[in-house]
């Protein structure tokens, strides 16, 4: 599985550290940004989200200062379920229960070691389906209703 990854300037340093820590275990495609120079998080969010809905990648990781802004932007793309997580528990269960296809992290909130553990828990998790599938179906129905 290749993973799409993207960031704004406030998430650049964490992305570099994550890629270094995880490069031997996972394959990433980097959708930018590529320096700490100003870069708007909606641009990174849209690039990664579009790559996922186009089927180029199963999952994506987005990083900004808090993880919040970039998750809001990514969730505007139909078919995306981006979760801003600040704990190992949240990263694990957004995958198991919410079928999150993008994990959003905040460099100003989460250190690199903890972020790597969160990414691994999220990537290793598989959606449980069952009672959770009905909720995902409702999310898709809301999305369909509002995208007309």
Keywords:
148 residues; alpha/beta; single chain; 5 strands
Provide a descriptive summary of the structure in words:
The protein has helices spanning 12-22, 41-53, 68-74, 88-96, 112-124, 131-146, and strands at 2-7, 27-30, 59-64, 82-84, 102-106. With 148 residues, the chain is an alpha/beta fold. It has a 5-stranded parallel sheet, with helices on both faces. β1, α1 (12-22) and β2 form a beta-alpha-beta unit. α1 packs across α5 (112-124), α2 crosses α3 and α4 runs parallel beside α5 (112-124). The N and C termini lie far apart (32 Å). The mean pLDDT is 96.
Short description:
The chain is of the alpha/beta class and 148 residues long. The protein is 47% helix and 16% strand.
Helix content: 40-55%
Mean pLDDT: 96
Number of helices: 6
Query: Which strand order spans the largest sheet, edge to edge or round the barrel?
Result: 2-1-3-5-4
Distance between the termini: 32 Å
What's the structural blueprint in terms of helices and strands?
Blueprint: E1 2-7, H1 12-22, E2 27-30, H2 41-53, E3 59-64, H3 68-74, E4 82-84, H4 88-96, E5 102-106, H5 112-124, H6 131-146
Parallel strand pairs: 1-2, 1-3, 3-5, 4-5
Helix pairs in contact: 1-5, 2-3, 4-5
